Amino acid sequence: MWTADLSWRSAFGVIALLSAAGLAAAQEPAGQQGKPPEPAQARDASPPEGKPGAPPVATREDERLVPVSRFVLFYLNEHADQPSIDEFNALTVSLEKTDKGYERPGRGGTPVEVRIGDVFDAEAPMFSAAAIVRVGEAIVREFNRRGFIGIFVTPDPTEINEAGDDLREGRTALRLAVITGRIAELRTVGAGGRVKNEERFDHPMHDRIADKSPVQVGDLIRRDRLDRYLFRLNRHAGRRVDVATAPGGGQPDELALDFLIYEPKPWTLYAQVSNTGTEFTSDWRQRLGFTHNQLTGRDDVLRLDYLTSDFEDSHTFMVSYEFPLLNGRLRVRPFGTWQQYTASDVGLADEQFEGETWQLGIEAAYNVLHRRALFIDMVLGARWENTQVINSSIELRGEDDLFIPYLGARLERFTDRATTVASVTLEGNVSGFAGTDVEQLEKMGRPDVDEDWTVIKWDLEHAFYLEPVIFRKAWRENLPPPEGRLRARGQTLAHELALAFRGQQAMGNRLIPAAQTVLGGMYSVRGYEESLAAGDSSVFGSIEYRFHVPRALKINPSPGRKLFGEPFRVTPTAPYGVTDWDLVLKAFYDVGKVTQTDGIEAIGEKDQTLSSVGLGIQFDLKRNVRLRADWGFALQDAESGSRRTHSGDSRVHFEGTIFY
Q1: pTM beyond 0.85, yes or no
Q2: How many CA atoms lie within 13 A of 591 on its CB side?
């Protein structure tokens, strides 16, 4: 907390700067590996001491008074983007009127609202230094509201000098200089594994970020434009960009604008094992993957994935390459897949067939709406599929081509307090274009299927922390902790609620097995066998409570620990802080239903409802290790051929992933 000193102009500068300070650094929502959180918003350089936003304490300087008949606002330096200075005369300031004059609130006087542009009585009432500082704060706040930062307000140095002496010689109007910071330097500062430490300043790989900045040298610092730019930059996985200002140039209004760019190494290898297989193949599935988030340094992403069941019965290869166009608003993604599967993988346990599918496709996603952290994209794509099935029980083979165009919308929003991801897609087969033969389709494991079909798919996931909801005032106002404590009540992000709702509507079509939807297992209704129930249409919902144990631990501002030679946060270092490890305790309820279109009871097709409750645990170590186990208890009977799950049965689902 800073105290007023004899330099009134210094006090004004500090208060103005503090009022314009940015928000606390953002934290990544749990469970969103690699997803961009809300960026820390454009902020001014921190003052040399004190806490942002802290009011001045009562000192003898509060007793120092000067007569003021009116405030006269003026710009120290003119700029074409400045709003009219007269617009700020209508602002009001909350003060108190005492026997001595106008004081800051809390001095025991009568509360009053003072309009900055008013002309006071001829006697020129006295204003304390703290009261005049409050006037400057109101001006700065209004500039901030309009999207400007780097704003300073100070008395005209020809009227009040550094020592606080009144030089007006009988005049009582007080001139307040408004200094609007303009950019004198535009710099980039890199961190992380992508650039070497000695090359972190203005690295050529970061030139695009500076060149495309919405504010350039000579411009005023517009927080609204910078925030929008930061949100868009931070949408790219593997990159975090913040902005800060610092003194720059030789003039009072000249500032340096720094883009602080954190990028770990651009590529990631991972290996995963889970018990998400079926008893007809193997209970264990393995997955290997590679992702490069800057393949050519233009925000282009290459993804390679391989999934298998003990490297024997089931194999899937996936590849995609995504690249931006139109300054990132349009992203194009060609992709391909080859898959070898069995009947149980698509929910047909007693069928004796194997399938093989390859597909090639392309997708374009165009951003149609961007409001801070909210992005909505329209998606248009198409894929060509070739599917063949060999039914060994009756020596039947079917092979056919499908052409599946799709149209949809995607929404995503990542903030400190909540994460929302949603999508809806309309897709279907165009048999006339692909040359699909219904006789071949019926050889793929299901009779009476449609050669032309349309389905609607949707997926909604929303997770939010409870503390900002329950302790709303502490979150919004960033309340200081009580004396002797490092955080106020509720200033953690330890309690989380996650909701999911997804499904498929077949719109009266009978689908081939590969196009049906399945329920049961780790990624849908836990407690049941994997892919136990299949249907043309489905609906699924889940609610899960998560408790992040280390985030509730006592704050240690200077943890001083290292892991593998790097700093390691065992406990939070600040209110709402996160740690470099996590232990998440969970409780969940899952429910889902599959329905058949014109179901044929003779071959076991029927509608089924699955529901379960359970407990889970998850351990994360930085971005390198994730171990997850969920223990689900089935609440309803369900079956598929010889596979059955009875009410009361339980199943432990496990997944372990190592990232490098």
Answers
A1: no
A2: 5
